[in-house]
Design goal:
single chain; 140 residues; alpha+beta; OB fold (Dihydrolipoamide Acetyltransferase, E2P); 2 domains; 5-stranded antiparallel beta sheet; 43% helix
Length: 140
């Protein structure tokens, strides 16, 4: 009985799980985006690549992005905490600054990441509905 239900509804169930995963990840990413922080422009001063070797001589790279920016006439130089391959030294980028602690910053544009998840949600929803309809029609 269970095998017959999963056989017919396995694919729609898969797309439903993917849809839920997209929604959960999108909500987590969106909630990490600080509200009430001020947007300003920073300049990437330096990108350092830290290389470590793990088990089996596996190479692991971590990129540290350092940004210079000014708040209320005072200059700051802090690590961004986010790296994207498109980042280059000397590049200007929008950052968010905590008004209570101007040393706390994050990238303002995490748009590319959000875009992928926002596109994935309707695609997974359509695939879920289509495969569910096909599964129901197969029963008849």
């Amino acid at each position: 009985m269970t095998r017959r239900i999963l056989g017919r509804f396995g694919t729609p169930l898969f797309f439903l799980i993917v849809l839920v995963a997209f929604v959960v990840v999108l909500s987590v990413i969106s909630s990490d985006h600080p509200k009430g922080w001020n947007e300003t422009t920073g300049v990437i001063r330096k990108i350092e690549t830290e290389v470590e070797y793990g088990p089996g001589n596996e190479r692991n790279e971590t990129n540290h992005v350092y940004v210079e920016y000014t708040v209320d006439g005072k200059k700051y130089d802090r690590e961004l905490g986010v790296y994207m391959p498109s980042y280059k030294e000397g590049m200007e980028l929008k950052i968010l600054v905590d008004p209570a602690d101007p040393r706390s910053i994050t990238a303002a544009d995490i748009g590319p990441i959000l875009r992928y998840f926002k596109i994935g949600i309707p695609i997974a929803a359509v695939l879920f509905v289509v495969t569910l309809a096909l599964a129901i029609l197969r029963k008849r």
